[in-house]
Design brief:
The complex is a heterodimer of chains A (260) and B (314). In chain A, 38% of the residues lie in helices and 39% in strands. Chain A is of the alpha+beta class. Chain A folds into two domains: 23-216, Macroglobulin (MG2) domain (Immunoglobulin-like, Sandwich), CATH 2.60.40.1930; 230-257. In chain A, the strands form three sheets. In chain A, strands 2-13-12-4-7-9 form a six-stranded mixed sheet. Chain A has a four-stranded antiparallel sheet with strand order 1-3-11-10, with no helix packed on it. Chain A has a three-stranded antiparallel sheet with strand order 5-6-8. The chains are: A alpha+beta (260), B mainly alpha (314). Chains A and B meet through strand 5, strand 6, helix 5, helix 6 and helix 7 of A and strand 1, helix 3, helix 5, helix 9 and helix 10 of B.
Chain lengths: 260, 314
Amino acid sequence: MRMFKRICLFNLVAACFLIMFFSSSAFSITFEVSPAQISVDSLYHGSKVVVTGEVEAGEDIIIKFSSPEKKAHLRKKGKRGGLLWMNVGEFEFNPVSDVYLLYSTQDISSMLTKDQQDKYALGYDAFKRIVEVSPVSSESEKEKWVEEFIKFKENTGVYGHFTDQVETETNGGKKTFRLSLDWPYQAPPQEYTVSVYAVKDNAVQNYNQMSLNVKKVGALNFISDLAFNKASIYGIVSIFIALLAGFIVSVIFKGGSGAH
Amino acid sequence: MYFYLPIALTSISLPLIVGLGLVVGLLSGLFGVGGGFLMTPLLIMIGIPPTVAAATDSLQIVGASTSGTFAHWRLGNVDFKMGIYLLIGGFVGGLGGVHLVKMLRMMGNADFVIKITYVLMLGIVGSYMFVESLNALKKAKKAKEGIKAADIPSKPRKESGFVKFLKSLPLQTKFDKSGVTHSALLVIFLGTFVGILAAIMGVGGGFLMVPVMVYLLRMPMHVVVGTSLFQILFTCIEVSFLQAYVNQTVDFILAVLLLAGSTFGAQIGTKLGKKLHGDQLKILLAILVLVVTAKIMLDLLLEPSILLSMKGGH
């Protein structure tokens, strides 16, 4: 009898765990990225990307587009001779992503604590704290050049933080969201990560990730492959075509205008 | 309509890029310059990475200068002999210049030296050409207005020691097409000099070669333009191949789009040049060089809006 009671108790506890597990996974964020792959062909000029999904009612949303982090080397401009602006050195920024686009329903600093921002690398404030710059001599100098880095990237449309583009609608206990954005053509072809964070009480409650593949296709892919993998053939063919183009136009002009 | 570039990894407007090619090709056919000193900064300005802009421009110049050289050759304006001698010098100078840049970089401050050399050379060449051709035009105008030759004080041309020295150099060679006789050593030396400067400044050197041919080699302006294009063609074939092979920075699609404009531009430029007087051509080139100098000076003096830039270019 005692044995039977123990088995019943064990089953009850296990059932509770299972219920808790399934109920929590039922709350996990479900979302879709459309299209899941962007094909970069010769006429590519960016693409429309739509992210739709659902979180718990009362939660705020942050959507982040990023690529694998790496080191970036950029030239720094400064004054020489107290008068002339020119390149005066080089900086290494590490770790940084080629693309860092954030879309949130509120300002990040009002949604998350500093620790949470840093933990999930969310927002420019966290970015400034995480990224290392060398060579710099002080923290203020580092901050200045990280700000310049952000400005440089924002200028080409691959970095940005927007608080007014995620549309939401609450239905019962759920909040649906929709983000439609113009994917920048300046973002290089590679695999990107789309992360969606559900935020409440100054902390990330839940998050989920999907990939967005930006891929060269067709003739564009063929040319790129030739340039990097068969560089000598690529060079010779390019020069031959340039010579031929110059010659053909020259012949056309000779015939067309009657010049001697 | 937009085109995506496989190496530059950016998208560009078709009319903009073909138009850019047309304008630079026109200047090339008109003045015998490759146009690298104009095209590369313009490409960077529209978002092409500096390394790709410089490398692709050299391939574009191959096409444009082929078109221009053919057009000038048909007009009898190419001195092949002179071109080959200058080419030999240019090749040696280019190699020397590249090593010089390496040395400067090791010593630090290379960018400062390069920028200052660039501005000074452009400024001096532009100003000299401008004043000289303006005086020549004034003289021509006076002559046209009927001032008798006797009224113009004509100085008997006395051979200077320098000219005597040049004439005493060995390997005196007659260049029939240009109608001049110079020592082959002098021509090769001048080619080397321009090659060194071109390598330091990271440009093809057409805008330096043209004044050298006009003022130091005393070649007639129309032959200068054709011969300069011939020489540029070979320099840029070498550079294009090296850039494609070593750095993988030549964007074929970008070059083709630029060529669509520049090959036609070079033909129009050649025809336009035929209608202009040599001094008119010189003064127009001088103005162009001075405008570019002013733009570079402004860029040096004004604080840039963004203090970081991609690596590469000049």
